[in-house]
Amino acid sequence: MGGCQTPDKEIIIQVNNLRTQFGRTVIHDNLNLSIYRGEIISIVGGSGTGKTVLLRQMLCLERPKQGTITIFGVDISHATADQIGYFRSRSGMLFQQGALYSALSVFDNVAQPMRELKVLPEALIRDAVYLKLDLAGIAPIHAQKMPASLSGGMVKRVALARALALEPEILFLDEPTSGLDPESSEAFVDLIQSLHKELGFTVVMVTHDLDTLFALSSRIAVLADKHIIALGSSKEVIQCPHSFVKEFFLGARGRRALTALD
Ligand SMILES: Nc1ncnc2c1ncn2[C@@H]1O[C@H](COP(=O)(O)OP(=O)(O)O)[C@@H](O)[C@H]1O
Ligand SMILES: [Mg+2]
Questions:
Q1: Is the pTM here over 0.85, yes or no?
Q2: Is the distance from the beta carbon of residue 27 to the nearest atom of ligand 1 less than 6 Å?
Q3: By the 8 A CB rule, do 171 and 204 touch?
Q4: Which residues contact residue 207 at a Cβ distance below 8 angstroms, ignoring those fewer than 6 apart?
Q5: Among residues 105, 166, 181, 179, which one has the least CA distance to residue 131?
Q6: By the 8 A CB rule, do 89 and 120 touch?
Q7: φ, ψ for residue 87 (rounded to 5)?
Q8: Is 21 helix (H, G, I), strand (E, B) or coil?
Q9: 104: which DSSP letter?
């Protein structure tokens, strides 16, 4: 475990002793995690273990009730509304279901964060939207389409263009390739990889897909037993003897994906 705690790396998000509870159900307990600037860190864990909730907390959409989350050096529980607004404007999120506004065109979906935060005058938004669409690999002819007419892969790309709208420092991806066929999934992974190289943002991703996981992650964090039980490179994490890790990585699919690593 560990092995990646290099002190000279800049911590961009720090989660300390986080405890999350809904009613009587404890989701996270004593959860600790540091996220370094520029890395692609993936969080894996069983269904319902609180991966999406953790992303939402790091996005300041939910505040931790116990424990702390520090973003850019500020404890979000004590942050001012202005500071929270600033963090949100520096983060982009691709939600699990794509989560496009069905009543808005592709163009208006991508323009929405820019309009909401009034970062640009309307006259400049047009160029900015086309730039983001281009980054996400969407030709201008698709700009006036409605979400219902798009393929699954296109929905993810539009959602990505929207997540990139404010030029985020941190990009959160919740199951970015779920529901995509292998080809679209691979194309999406390549897209994230080249954007990461080009734009240098930090990526915090949740995924079940081993190909996506191994292709993108600089580190993997395993969420089980309500906290992070293993953290490190893929090679380090698969050494962990925890039953979830064994099942997740060393099932038939896992073995195939691991062979492809060497
Ligand atoms: N706002 C909420 N109120 C009550 N329970 C919630 C809420 N949000 C999430 N949960 C519960 O917390 C658990 C973790 O949810 P989630 O983070 O979505 O899991 P996953 O790891 O699959 O993404 C689930 O059991 C879910 O039902
Ligand atoms: Mg989830």
A1: yes
A2: yes
A3: yes
A4: 42, 44, 173, 175, 176, 177, 178, 213
A5: 166
A6: no
A7: -60, -45
A8: strand
A9: S
pLDDT for 118: 80
Distance 138 CA to ligand 1 centre (A): 33
Q: What is the 3-state secondary structure (H, E, C) of 60-95?
A: CCCCCCEEEEEECCEEHHHCCHHHHHHHHHCEEEEC
3-class state of residue 199 by DSSP: helix
β-strand pairing of 66-71 with 25-36? unpaired
The residue contributing the CA closest to ligand 1 atom 24 is 48
* Structure-block tokens of residue 37: 């600037």
Cα 112-36-175 angle, rounded to 5 deg = 50
The reply to whether ligand 1 has any atom less than 6 angstroms from the CB of 217 is no
Distance 127 CA to ligand 2 centre (A): 33
Query: What share of residues in the chain are helix, strand, coil (percent, to 5)?
Result: 40, 25, 35
Per-residue pLDDT tens for 150-199? 998 999 999 999 999 999 999 999 999 988 899 989 999 999 999 999 99
Q: Are 132 and 164 in contact (CB under 8 A)?
A: yes
What are the start-end ranges of the E strands in 147-214?
A: 170-174, 202-206
Give residue 149 CA to ligand 2 midpoint distance, Å. 25
Q: How far apart are CA 251 and CA 262, in angstroms?
A: 17
Q: How far apart are the first and last CA of the chain?
A: 20
Token readout for 26 is: 């404890």
* Residue type, position 177, single letter: T
